[in-house]
Automatic annotation (TrEMBL):
Alphabetical keyword list: Pyridoxal phosphate
Co-factor requirement: pyridoxal 5'-phosphate
Annotated function: Pyridoxal 5'-phosphate (PLP)-binding protein, which is involved in PLP homeostasis.
UniProt xrefs under HAMAP family: PLP_homeostasis
Domain annotation Alanine racemase N-terminal: ranges: 10-225
Protein name: Pyridoxal phosphate homeostasis protein
Gene Ontology terms for molecular function: pyridoxal phosphate binding
Secretion signal, residue range per the UniProt entry: none
Organism: Paenibacillus lutimineralis
Sites bearing N6-(pyridoxal phosphate)lysine, chain numbering: 35
UniProt xrefs under Gene3D superfamilies: Alanine racemase
Superkingdom of origin organism: Bacteria
Family statement: Belongs to the pyridoxal phosphate-binding protein YggS/PROSC family.
Amino acid sequence: MSLQDRIQHVEERIQAACDRSGHNRNDVNIVAVTKYVSVEMTQTVLDQGILHIGENRPQNAIPKWEALQGRGAWHFIGHLQSRKVKDVVGKFKYIHSLDRISLAEEVDKRAAASGVEVLAFVQVNVSGESTKQGLEPSEVEAFLQEMERYTHIKVIGLMTMAPIEEDPELTRPVFRRLRELRDELNAKMVTREPLTELSMGMSGDFEIAIEEGATWVRLGTILVGKGEED
Ligand SMILES: *Cc1c(COP(=O)(O)O)cnc(C)c1O
């Protein structure tokens, strides 16, 4: 399948998931996860009008960003080591993996120095798997309160990863819990402005995530491929 065909196929499935669940297609944003593919393929993705690019490793992402001169809007979606923050801030507008105060401290410092504001998602380990990064749901409220003092980071929502399931339906409770958590935090007015965004859903489970209210889906394999073809 060509990239154009893949995009169309994904687009149809996103629209169908929105229709099934009463969501507006305009509320769902696609991050094309290009971590498996080349600079050339990433450029083709941008040429097709997909502007949000997701990468999870600075050592692969930075050369790609430089080759493409930062075209598009870049999302850092992987575990971020504090010592890599200086390479990421100023290039990546979004960080989906904010999961500790020491990281916030460093991001804020670098953002202040570069005169930028970083848009962030707090990563939550809803499923409780020990292999997953993220805060426990019960820790998020206190974390957000502490975040208020970092003026160069704007927390816009929550992010989670569901366990890999053969039956995507099994991921539904994880996505639903993240949405409920966001709504609870908003009801308590924990942040100055309500958290509007939910980053959830990947190639295997994005339709379920959209049904449960995802506003950002992070799509690698299904959208741009794994890098063996095209
Ligand atoms: C790799 C990755 C994705 C995309 O995975 P696919 O299953 O290929 O769509 C999404 N989110 C994160 C955090 C990733 O690391």
